Amino acid sequence: MRLLLVEDEEELARPLSELLKREGHGVDCVGDGDLAWQQLTHHSYDLLILDWMLPGLSGLELCTRIRQLGSSTPVLMLTAKDTIENKLAGFEAGVDDYLVKPFELRELLARVRALLRRPVQLLPEELSIADLVVDLRNHTARRGERVVDLSSKEYQLLEYFIYNPGRILTHEEILRQLWRDTDEAVPNTLAAQVKLLRRKLDKEFETPLIHTIYGQGYRFGV
After folding, report:
1. Distance CA 209, CA 222 (A)
2. What is the pTM of this model?
């Protein structure tokens, strides 16, 4: 089984990852909610183990997003938040099980085994908005009857937009996600890439999908 462990406390993440690997699982381990979202949009997992409080997106926000996409991948939430209000918020967001820190490792393993026995539904192969359809498996897009010819970076930008419909995405957020650790991560680069994508995606169509929010960033949708 392939698991995603999202925990920013290294002293907890390391032994948990090693324990799960000894159980025979493949484990991807990240300590940042935004990095976790990147993993979730590019890979399929049999189980997600999420800390609630994380840099970037919280575990609760991650769970909410994948449920909005129609995924029923099991989610085990690890957190120090132990009030009934916190637990109800987690369950309402789509959390399957809830383990309050500190916990015993044998209890975590028991809960992991129970959750992995449940059937899961993978993320959809396509996402659509208005007359735009993005094929997540083949990295292609079409609008109406027209195939949109995209470069690799244009596709990455479009995919990030369609995974976040209606949200105002700041320049900094987009740069951090798409140009991580490169010298090209500057606002002018993003503006140029959006211009290219907008020309292919919105030109000659009555309804624009890429909207500039001046001084903030971009919003994708009708």
Report:
1. 5
2. 0.59
